[in-house]
User: Fold this.
Amino acid sequence: MQILNYSDREIVKNRFENELVDEVSITLFTQTDLGGLIVPGRECETCAPTEQLLREVSETSELINFRKLDIRSDSEEAERCNISRIPSFLVSKRDETNVRYIGMPAGTEFPVLMEALVNVSSDEPKISEETKGFLEDLEENVSIKTFVTPN
Amino acid sequence: MTHAMAAFTQKVVAEVIEVQEFPDLGKAYQVRGVPLTVINEKYSFTGAANEQMLVEHVKIALLKDLEGDS
Assistant:
């Protein structure tokens, strides 16, 4: 069963046709499907639906690449990307690791995923010239964590 | 919005966290309402912010960092 229904998929597809510029990647950190087995300490209710949702989104445009990594067997990459929880994913054009989502972007958070893909794909993220000037002048790194719920 | 800023510069690391899935993070960051935005681990505010407001919050957080360093 699909997570995105037909009309949602068409909306997403149309938006990406108009707004994606360059290839963009979604890198999902998750765990190997345990085939329904429940292993204490390895429960992850949202890992499978997050993977399905991201796959469905990536199938709406040839410009979106989807990559799935296992947080345990790909632990070096997880460490490089500073990922310690699953499901988590990065949206990147090359090998950047600074556009991140921890959890499943469902419900009202789904547009956040679309915005991230559009902004990363474009060389011109949707921010004002004034904000760009401020960001260009930053002398240090800034970490911004936003806590949300999908309702 | 934070992702757009991070897409512009790698100096910004923007992370969106679904707090219902990770209640331990919610507890650690004392999330009592959403959206809660935490900048540089020290400064936070609750509620939606447009681009201009977000930039102002980042400026305040950076100033607080400087005050903390001095």
